[in-house]
Amino acid sequence: MTLAQAKRGQRLLIAAIPNPAVRAQAIRFGISEGAEVECYEKLPAGPIVVGKGKQEIAIGRRLAENIQVKPA
Fold it and tell me: What domains lie within the chain, and their CATH numbers?
């Protein structure tokens, strides 16, 4: 399952970020493989807002489609 398929309120574990360019961009946001995040909001045809600790991050839909997650 990808981050783009997450449901609002779902707690997720980042399982894999296979694309090196996407991985580098995600690391800049503070998200890496093994991190636990919560899906705060999923805007229609827009970004996915996730929370990690006290930080809220809006991740673009295309980027979210390249991040593999599993339920935490």
Answer: 3-71 (2.30.30.90)
